[in-house]
Model the fold of this input.
Amino acid sequence: MYDLKISGGTVLDGSGARGQVADVGIREGRIVDIGPALGAARETLSAEGKIVAPGFVDVHTHYDAQVFWDPTLSPSCYHGVTTVIGGNCGFSIAPLNPEAGNYLLPMLARVEGMPQETLKAGVPWDWQSFGDYLGRIENRIAVNAGFMVGHSAVRRVAMGERATGEQANADDMERMKSLVTRSLKEGALGFSTTVSPTHNDAEGRPVPSRHATREELLALASLVKDFEGTMLELLPNLNFDEGTAELLTDFSLAGARPVNWNVLALGGSDEASVARAKKQLAATDYARARGAEVIALTFAGAPTIRINLVSGFVFDALNGWAPLFRLPLAERMQRLRDSAYRTQLDESAKTSQGTFGRLACWETFRIVEVHSAANRDFVGKTVGDIAKAQNKRPIDALIDIALADELKTSFMPPAGGEDDDTYRLRAKLWTDNRTVVGASDAGAHMDMIDTFAFSTQLLGKSRQLELIPIEEAVRQLTSVPARLAGLRERGELRVGWHADVVVFDPATVGCGPVYTKFDLPGTREGRLYADALGIPHVIVNGKTIVRDGALMPARPGTVIRSGRDTYTVKLQGRQPATA
Done:
């Protein structure tokens, strides 16, 4: 007798092959049979008229903290995701000591959009080693979760306050190497870091990893090559200035592992947007020509973001704006009342290059959330409309609105790329072997970005616009990311493999409207959320965690540990670019 049988669905095994109508028999957490008319089971889920696929894999999340206050890792679990990888961007929360914890908590609040009150109320912050951290979450999570060891955490533990502002000396390097090595021995999936100018700490300074020399980055990356099943991740400057492709390539070669970077975003079908994507993809061609491997994570859709002048995230990447966010809030507001200073900000922002230069078009920002009665009528309007009605410069209208809200106003820059032509180009990126679909940032930017639902966004848009075959869509969400991460016996439906399974309706699957959900511990603030459409059942390691769209009590997720649960993805044998 099977523990669980999924009956009558069209099985897409994740390889890209055509589907077959069959039952799937599961016993002791493994798939034991795939075929017609299987025998009796203790639990049976009907999948008639639906697709039965491997669980989706999300290689770029920030669930490191949320795993404590929400071990279901919602909303990912509802959207068919059965395995997540955290510790990205150098922002793990292990290893740890009390001093580092006091720094990392507000840093995460700033750079990853997690309310400080929630991080204080929902996370214990009392472990030390990476193994201690993993042990805390073992046997209590709904989905499988693995984590990389992050550069900023390592640097802060090793160097204390000197981690921000100083280069590492020889003793510092030895301490960092020891921390990374121990973390890898204890199951960390790899090493991650960032040099992105958008990553600043609670005081507006570059996060610790941004103070590292190139030699430090490569020395720490090189440690992963001695451990089975490890990986690398690095966030570059997304303008891909001279030297970016070389850094990514050298990082990969140092660790003898593929390195993935975040994020390749297509903002439209215009010539400039396409040229930018080609420039970024060329980093992979450069790397492969030198025996390395560089993979771009790419969005499933056109993300909308919400930004404000309290956190300053994204604003602080504009030329000349970072010092503003090092000021206390009251002093910052006083500074912003100065007309000459506003002019300075306006002019310097417009000298920013690439993405950030395009951002400095204040008139295109839409007001999406306000906190004062004076601003209530502005919701839904653009800064340009308001500026025109008030006979103001756009920069003055934006700052005046923000000051009336004590800088908490949420502004939404134009998303771009929601048109059909851009989606057709985006579909080519999904299937390009230089990319992996993901970049969800799930667990982070809770008040800012809606990319957490990448799986249902891809399936829904692909169906609506007939972008790629359903078999290929499933492959891109399952076996492709599973192979990037080197997941053992996951990512496909095969006899003997782990029973991570999602059942979805191909006619209705998609992402529901984005809304604010108020369920964060320790605060009245909410988080952006969206319900999954057309996904009735989700199974992890043979246990049903979502049945008929409702969360079940089972918490069968495995903590994914390097070597035990992952294999080494070698650099050799990569295929030429497909687009």
Summary: The first strand starts at residue 2 and ends at 11. The two ends are 47 Å apart (CA to CA). Residues 271-289 form the longest helix (19 residues). Residues 148 and 188 are 5 Å apart (CA to CA).
